[in-house]
Amino acid sequence: MKFRINSVLPAVAAAALIVGAGAASAEDTVKIGLIVPLTGGQASTGKQIDNAIKMYQQQNGATVGGKKVEVIVKDDAAVPDNTKRLAQELIVNDKVNIIAGFGVTPAALAAAPLATQAKIPEVVMAAGTSIITEKSPYIVRTSFTLAQSSTIMGDWAAKNGIKKVAALVSDYAPGADALNFFKQHFTAGGGEIVEESKVPLANPDFAPFLQRIRDLNPDTAFIYFPGTQAGIFAKQFAERGLAKSGIRIIGPGDLTDDDELNNMGDQMLGIVTAHQYSALHDSPMNREFVAAFKKANNFRPNFITLGGYDGMHVIYEALKKTGGATDGDKLIAAMKGTSWESPRGPISIDPDTRDIIQNVYIRKVERVDGELYNVEFATFDAVKDPVKAGSKM
Which of 90, 115, 336, 340 sees the fewest Cβ atoms within 10 Å? Predict the structure, then answer.
């Protein structure tokens, strides 16, 4: 019996050393679980965020606050059930300290209860529905809200000769946000909405809506569709003669996404949008950023890229403030109020709402050096999410 005890003790001690070494190693590493769509219809969103984070770490190193930063990438294909499962696996099995990414609103919402339960930050780098940050005190957003761009578009339209608008948006939460906030500000400025229509998110048929717009003959169409659907709409809009009729197209900036714009064709020329970023944004920092990103990836950065890039900046700055401590409450407190100069312009995290405060630019699609770009021509400074502006959470 004595022999057995003595023979077991060294094995137990060795196991303890292994566990201790593992624990020490884990304590020296900050793990970020990045959940983004790398397949499916939103794959370009995940591609932009993933490459933005890689570039940020190449430029700023993989160590901050005395800790190594490890990014664990998971593909949810923008399916909320996948998001929830992957977030749970990352938190429970991988012991991540932060979850980030979230290409669409339902994905961000699916992860929110898990962030709250685990008391770890959820950094939303893409999804844009206003309500997201209200779903957990651990959510910080570095992307945008559709209310920011849609309210500005409404204000600008009302003050720049637009009187009658037919509105057409995708039938899901971001589409509803875009329409509602544009309508509030446009009508408050004296404009009239002559038609409101919603089309299915998947496989929309624009033909009956285009005919309706032609019959109503407004001076402008306000539209919001995700991804390449805006290009399809604009092509059919031109083919049916609506462009020649003098009807203009306006909308939130993701309508003319830098990542897709060149492929959409000349029918996009002249479309006016409100947004927080253009690859042609005129600043030395952005010119360097775009050049470095294109060299590394052979495609343009877009507004989603900045959500990922600036999301990593917020995480790094928070870790500097906490000296590498990964307590969720400390990290969230450190993120609140952070301000910095981004390639998109000056931005900060609202300490009350944990949403991003940023400039919104009015842009027009033009051809520059043989390519289509969103050319900025007016700036609205330091725009908060109007839904929560002035509120305390």
Answer: 340
DSSP 241: T
- Angle at 304 (CA atoms; ends 45, 139), nearest 5 degrees: 95
279 close to 301: Cβ distance less than 8 angstroms: yes
328-368 pLDDT per residue, tens: 999 999 999 999 999 999 999 999 999 999 999 999 999 99
- Report whether pLDDT(302) > 50: yes
Written as one letter, the residue type at 230 is: A
**Dihedrals phi, psi of 391, to nearest 5 degrees:** -90, 160
Taking the C-alpha atoms of residue 372 and residue 377, their distance in angstroms, rounded to an integer, is: 15
The pLDDT tens digits of the residues spanning 14-41 come to 333 323 333 334 579 999 999 999 999 8
Long-range contacts (CB closer than 8 Å, 24 or more residues apart) made by 157-163: 157/182, 157/186, 157/189, 157/191, 157/220, 157/222, 157/250, 158/185, 158/186, 158/188, 158/189, 158/190, 158/191, 159/189, 162/186, 162/191, 162/219, 162/220, 162/248, 162/250, 163/190, 163/191, 163/192, 163/219
For the stretch 214-219, contacts whose Cβ atoms lie closer than 8 Å and that sit 24 or more positions apart, written own/partner, are 214/240, 214/241, 214/242, 214/245, 216/166, 217/245, 217/247, 218/164, 218/165, 218/166, 218/194, 218/247, 219/162, 219/163, 219/164, 219/165, 219/246, 219/247, 219/248
> Is the CB of residue 156 less than 8 Å from the CB of residue 360?
no
- Whether the Cβ atoms of residue 150 and residue 178 lie closer than 8 Å to each other: yes
- Per the listing, tokens 């022999």 go with 3
Q: Nearest 5°: CA angle at 320, between 393 and 98? A: 55
List, in order, residues 6 or more apart from 339 with CB less than 8 Å away: 346, 347, 348, 349
Task: State mean pLDDT over 135-163.
Answer: 97
C-alpha to C-alpha distances, 93 to 31, 90, 96, 113, 383, nearest whole angstrom: 12, 6, 8, 17, 39
Handedness of CA 262, 264, 269, 274 (dihedral sign): negative
